[in-house]
Amino acid sequence: MHKAYQYWLGHLPAFSNKKIQALINYFGSAYHVYCSSEAEYRKVKGLQEKDIRFINQHKINWNVDKEFEKIKNSGVNYITIEDSAYPERLKRLVNPPYALFVKGQLPFDHIPAVAVIGSRICSEYGKKAAREFSSRLALRGIQIISGMARGIDGISQKSAIDAGGMTFAVLGSGVDICYPKENILLYENILNKNGGIISQFPLGTVPKPCYFPVRNEIISGLADMILVIEAKEKSGSLITADLALEQGKEVFAVPGRVTDALSVGCNRLLKQGAGVALSAEDILEELGFFKEHIMDMSKKANISLESKENMVSLIHISEPTR
Length: 322
Description:
The protein is of the alpha/beta class. The protein contains 15 helices and nine strands.
């Protein structure tokens, strides 16, 4: 059961995606990583002695069959980069996450996706912009990616749902933990409306500040384009925008008043060459899709949704394609 060993590998303590990928590249599979010796581990470029100790201790502490049974019974899908359901957009990253925990669906690879992000503490102007952009994009079949945070993120995702669109939340915690708690209704509605809750972190992981940069990289990685609506001078949204630029993604920003602290980040992005977002049509035009084309793609996504649900539900109990 190679999937159980993939689950073991994805839980190596403090192992980066880069190190996990180095192990896969050398040994060929998670199963062969598990079955190898210390002498073989030392041949892997980039592994240190402390890493080898971690691997050996992890073998001792981890009951492969018992732990995998837990995830199978949890209703959460565990999808690795070796699985066909793994998002194509994430595969293009320099160091893509080895595995994702998913409740509900993953974004469709063939449907445009825009990450809509911004300040947790936002103005009425920002709230109105978030509703306007997200609802209009969702109406045209664009998938909305965000972090389900207070403020712009949550408002954008709620607006996408209200418009009948699909939205996907990437968390800095386990997918079984709703953060912030006040967004529990949004959390449930995302799942009930054919969206998904996604995380790189194992079940039960509580949110910590150090987890959010990882979460932000996945947000930008899952999107074709980033839209920033209100951001202070030092903001997590600006970090996400920088990550998006490193990934080769286009970044758009909604301009704000020069006297408003909440607009400093967006205005600075615009000064540095980000696209000016005055309406949803600016985003649609940059994506290069006609409205009719996008709506047609959205209908196709709905038609294929049932088959995708069946496929994803089987991912965690079937062997990966070789």
